[in-house]
Write a structure and sequence with these properties.
The chain is of the alpha/beta class. Helix content is 32%, strand content 24%. Strands 5-4-3-7-6 form a five-stranded mixed sheet. It has a two-stranded parallel sheet with strand order 1-2. It starts with a helix and ends with a strand.
Length: 168
């Protein structure tokens, strides 16, 4: 039954805030410069959206929207406070570390590129892999010519590290 018919206010709806990408307990929140900039931009955008809603005279579900936006701001502020930027120039070049772009060749001979990034900027479809992901953990510490075994739902896959680059 519609809330309008039951006389319920939209602000009584449960607060649903999509969670941030999980960061395992005890793990530093490493970020690339791009990742940190993206977190800051997202924070500013949500603060702007919250200010617009606060200034709005429409009462519809304003209270609920403000609560949702405030929860998102708090989650972002927690991530920003714990962010530990990693300078690619300080990484041992030639070795897969945080911030590296790694070219690997699978058992089928196909080459793929992955960039090891923070949890908030991970996007597997774009080749951005969180440093806590099984693929990244298998590659960390490797050099060109090394092989890494990655456990996948299809079974173990052996990858040869072809190239390690850093955006400096």
């Amino acid at each position: 039954m519609s809330k309008a018919f039951k006389g319920e206010d939209a602000s009584e709806a449960p607060l649903v805030v999509p969670p941030r990408a999980p960061l395992p307990a005890g793990t530093e929140n490493y970020v690339t410069a791009r990742g940190l900039a993206a977190l800051k931009a997202e924070h500013l955008a949500i603060l702007g959206e919250r200010a617009r809603v606060e200034a709005s005279t429409s009462d519809g579900d304003r209270t609920h929207t403000l609560a949702t936006l405030s929860a998102r701001v708090a989650a972002l502020e927690d991530r920003l406070a714990s962010a530990r930027p990693v300078d690619p120039a300080a990484q041992p070049h030639g070795e897969v570390r945080f911030g590296a772009t790694v070219t690997v060749r699978g058992e089928n001979g196909e080459a793929r590129r992955y960039r090891i990034v923070g949890v908030d900027e991970a996007d597997v479809a774009r080749g951005q892999v969180a440093f806590v992901a099984p693929l990244a953990r298998a590659l960390l510490g490797k050099h060109a010519g090394d092989t890494a075994v990655v456990r996948t739902p299809r079974g173990d896959e052996e990858l040869e590290v072809v190239r390690v680059d850093y955006d400096v």
